[in-house]
Design a protein that fits this description.
This protein is mostly helical and 1212 residues long. Among the domains are: 2-87, no CATH class; 107-333, no CATH class. Helix content is 57%, strand content 1%. The strands form two sheets. The protein has a two-stranded antiparallel sheet. Strand 3 (362-363) and strand 4 (367-368) form a beta hairpin. It is globular. The N terminus is likely disordered.
Length: 1212
Amino acid sequence: MADSVEDTSTKAPGSNGKVVESSSDLSALKYDTELYGNGDKYAGYDRSIETGGSNNDVPAVSMAKGRFGITAPREFIDELQTAEHDADEDPFKEILRMRGINRVIADRENDYQKRRHTRKLSNERGDGTGGSTYADRVRAVQLENEEAELVAKIKKAEASGRQAGASKWDVETPIQQVEAQAPQRRKRWDQTPADVRSSVAMTPQRRSRWDETPRVADGAASETPKRTRSRWDETPMLDRVAPDYGATPAGGAAIDYGATPAGRQMAAGLATPAGGHMAGVLTQQPGSVVDARNQYQTDEELDALLPDEGYVIMEAPASYVAIRTPARKLMSTPAAEIGGVAGFRMEAETEARIEAMEEVREVPGVGALPFFRAEDMQVFGQLLDGQDETELDAEARRERQALRLVLKIKNGTQAQRKVAMRQLGARACELGAAAVLNPVLALLMAAGLEDQERHVLVKAADRALQRLGAQARPFVHRILVVVEPLLIDEDRHARAEAREVISNVSKAAGLAAMLAALRPDVDHADEYVRNTTARALAVVAVALGVAAALPFLRAVGRSKRAWQARQTGARAVRHTAELARAGVLPHLRGLVDCVGAGLEDEHQAVRSAAALALAALAEAAAPYGIEAFDSVLKPLWLGVRRQRGPGLAAFLKAVGFVVPLMDVEHAAHYAREALHVVVREFQSPDTQMRAVVLRVVQQCVATSGVSPSLVRTDVLPDFVRCFWARRAALDRRHARHVIDATVALAAAAGGAPVVERLVAHLKDESAAHRAMAVDAVARTVSELGIADIDARLEELLMDGVLYAFQELPPDAARTELDALGSVLRALGGRAAPYLQQIASALLWRLNNPSSAVRQQAAALVAHVAPVAHVCGGDGDDLLARIATVLFECLGEEFPDVLAALLSALRAIVDVIGLPAMQPPVADLLPRLAPILKNRHEGVQEACINLVGRIADRAADRVPAREWMRCCFSLLDLLRAYRKPVRRAAVATFGFIARAIGPQDVLATLLNNLRVQDRQNRVCTTVAIAIVAESCAPFTVLPALMNEYRVPELNVQNGVLKALAFLFEYIGDAARDYVDAVAPLIADALVDRDLVHRQQAAAIMKHLALAVSGHACDRPMLHLLNHLWPNIFETSPHAICAVLEAIESCRVCLGPARILLYTLQGMFHPARAVRDVYWRIYNMTYVAAQPALVAFYPRIEDSSPNNYRRYELDYVL
């Protein structure tokens, strides 16, 4: 039976419709291989389990892609199988980086900015002066310069050898050539000793290979030269003999030169060290790994060896300090462990300690912190050692107190940071400069520093420096090393903070200390150091006065020692001009003399820096100071004719800024001559040259005396051909410069020639290039008009504008729509023939499925509405039809689109009026009331403005019940986040109150004073004042004063604030109400609540200014008597309000009465009383000094003093 079943054939339909025969093994069955796979479903799986080995060694299984298999990409699966996540790594770092958010400063720095990590802070000396001496820094900089010079020569020689055709592995270091160029000095760290060179020269040289051992000519070891002084960059020899550098050292007569020496050969220092055989001669150093037989004995081993009695454990003296200099550390070579793993190995207990510290969240003496990173242990580790601070000396305790404050500032919450910042500033002198600045500077040099951390640390350093004063003088160089890199940071706020810190350091340390710290870096070999030094020197000059720093700038700019110093001096002058701006005018001639000689320097970098400095000086001094540039005009002009490349760009820029300072005749001559060079450089591919050329073009064509025909024929054609290309639109900054230059050319040559050449670019295929052309055309026609544009050019212009609008990408910027609107507004009535085409395009795009396209169309409607109304006739009909479409689209689900639709409706309402509005206003307002509850801020602002416009112009067309419904919706908007929304809501309350009467609206607002939200109450008081201004004060004041009787603090404060706003808004109309509100204000001035008195003082300020000159002295004098006892308030807000009220009373009552009040306490025996009275007197004296002369008290003359002044003395 089974055999018959197995032999039975079945018919199965194939994938192609044919019938195939299938047997029991189904091997001939055809099916869809793309859906079900084409192989064994068990392919790729292990069919047996291994008994040995580790599962971690099994390679990743490659699974087949099938219907029910894993369909993720292979690289994702491999990444999940092999990735090892770091516990400290931020999992959202890549997402933030993709969004353009990178909080770690080092991650977004370029290679140039990362050079700051190579600079080291100067070491602190034990004498307390801090930092290395001036001579030490000068010597260190000289060594760095010599090293850089030697390395550059060697690289240059290697490059010349490679250019000759030799391989880089075969090129020998040309010692003789380098030595011939380098100064001949004995025993320098960067030179090979002469005896070694002679040995090398005497040894016959063959072509050296990097993988060969050098050989000696006679095959035997040469004579060992005399031992020389060891170099700091060499490992000292183990014995007092030095091998011959020309041959392989040998330990005996028979040595195998083909093997690495080992064993006893190591005793003579002849081969690579091997483990174990030098244990007796190595000195154990901290961090080195040596033989276990040579290690120091532990305390436990000593206790086991020595008896308990008769021995005393000696303690180290208190003044003992372990020597940990790099030279001592290099006295021994670390050797490998015997029987262990060679190389670096971290102790297990150290790893456990670090892991425990990573979990730190609460620091003793600080409290709980939001975070504590592992790198913070380097600075704040001693706070976690658990040591009893009572056993520490005073200096150590102060250091720990400063560390706690810095830790709170860096890692604390906002409240902790605020308190710690205040304490650090107040106790900076007590804690000491070293305790405060050392941790702050170390943290600022950390590689993982973030923006917020850097901001608070710089702020802390700034506050500390303001208090430390001269104590910060020893730390000037360290502060500059840390802060100077911020001067070239991409964040303008960081640059401003750095300038503030350097300015405070300069004022605290003085000019001499600053120049002593900056002088060694003026001629540094590293260009990065010179750049930051020049910027810091400019900040110092501006902070302490250009006149004080001018001698140093002159000496640096004329230095004959190094061209790097001259370049730094020119850069410093340039940055000084950029910072001081017009402040350089008194010192302009001296600054020009500092850099004038650099225009003819032998080094190109100095010439370029000098020319750029003159350009900055001319820009800062414009339009004055041409006399100071007389001595440099000839070198500048010769440089323009002789220079090429980057040097020419600097000279052109200088000429471009000097020319506007000249008189008309000379400016026209120089501008015409310079334009020929500028036109020639239009074709330059250098980005810097093109940017300078664009700026110089603007300066030259704006000069009087340059004819429009010259610009049209000689400049404009080449300019459009060279700069109006698609690649110009790729760089946003370059595109902006091109547009500015185009507008300047249009102002000089006329708008029509420029527009005629740009209309073709309006229909370019590149969206960025079209946007650039639209912007240029819009600015041209907006500034110059369209009077010179003929009918044909007008058609081409409108054709290009409509094409640009129709091809507008969905992600286009708002500026492009504004540019299109500017073109339409400039055309005005001449746009009437094109309105039908514009309306068709707008209606089609308003119904587009894309939300971005609908938003663009609605935004353009707001620009088209005024133009269509000016055209008249069919224009208003088109606007009414568009308004109907906009009304139908008010159910828009995208908030940005809905905000644009509401703004377009408001624009149409403004031009055609509400009577002609379709649909009627009675139907429009009910649709707007629900939209007021929308949470989108743009929708809120647009809807409130539209409701306010309807309430202002057509309130009678809407029932009062609908207006009250809007009032309740507006109450919620009084606590909106954005200020424009709150301002629009307050203004709309005034419109509604004027439309339906103030009673109902005022009742709603007064009830709102009882809420707990302060922002809501403040906006309510402003709305009450607006209602009083719209409906006259007498309709509001009775209800408002009656509300003050409510025994609730928030209500009474709200009433007082509403009165302050009310008198501020109504102005001199307050003279009719001053007697009515005087009792209420007097009661508030003597209230126990401080806020009551503060608000009453604010009312007095506005009331006194409003009634000044209206004969209201009696009530104001009465209020002044109640105000005067509040002059001793200590609250900052309260005393500020009281002093402002007294100043207002001076305007209203006159300075004489304020003087009489002031004289009573100016000579009081209590200092606290005298200070307040003298403060008031100083304010009065500054504001009304002449008016006080007649009211000074008459003092009789005494024997030594004469106080009487006659009228003749006043006149003289």
